[in-house]
Design brief:
Mean pLDDT: 92
Distance between the termini: 43 Å
Structural class: mainly alpha
Number of strands: 0
Largest sheet: none
Order of helices and strands: HHHHHHHH
Helix content: over 70%
Oligomer: single chain
Strand content: under 5%
Number of helices: 8
Length: 194
């Protein structure tokens, strides 16, 4: 599916790191200007397209033989910035744009847990691996978190019930918490065995 765009990008001299940086800049801009201003429907659709194309950098790197350790580091690091922009923009709008009440309070708590979890989950893995341990288990991978939250918030943006983002954020908050503890326990096991 992506082979034609990847070949065009390679022919044009685009490097994988260019795509990584451009994707992050676009993600941050869309998150802040759309999600952060309450335009969740257009924000979810726009970010869905950008995040779907997020795999182009890796495909281009493999196609052109330009895979590198720095490229993997850059991609992972900039993913954290993009995730922070998406979840941070949603938290901001929930706090200032929603009508006060239990729904807003619940959403605010769940979205803040999700925001913290979006950085804690990959950090736990990276820190464990830097110590020679393993910590890659869990139930809340990056793509899962983004898809669940963006789809629910996008549908709410189209006028569907606030229950959709409530359930989505609650699930992702729980899943990231479980995943963090799973990775801590896995790291502890492998560190103590080493």
């Amino acid at each position: 599916m992506f082979s034609a765009p990847v070949k065009l990008l390679a022919k044009a001299g685009v490097r994988p790191n260019h795509i990584t940086v451009a994707g992050t800049v676009i993600t941050v801009a869309l998150a802040v200007t759309l999600l952060g201003t309450g335009r969740w429907a257009s924000g979810a659709i726009s970010l869905g397209v950008v995040l779907f194309a997020d795999s182009l950098d890796g495909l281009l790197a493999r196609h052109t033989g330009q895979s590198s350790r720095f490229g993997a580091f850059l991609d992972s690091t900039l993913d954290r910035i993009g995730d922070g922009a998406v979840f941070g923009s949603l938290v901001y709008w929930i706090a200032i744009g929603m009508t006060p009440g239990w729904e807003r309070t619940w959403l605010l708590i769940a979205s803040l847990i999700t925001l913290v979890g979006a950085t804690t989950v990959p950090y736990a893995r990276a820190k464990a691996e830097s110590m020679g341990a393993s910590a890659s288990g869990g139930i809340a991978e990056r793509t899962d978190r983004l898809v669940i939250v963006l789809v629910a918030c996008g549908l709410h943006g189209f006028g569907l019930s606030v229950w959709l983002p409530l359930v989505a954020f609650t699930w992702v908050a729980l899943a990231t918490t479980i995943t963090t503890f799973t990775r801590v326990l896995q790291a502890r096991r492998t560190i103590e065995q080493g």
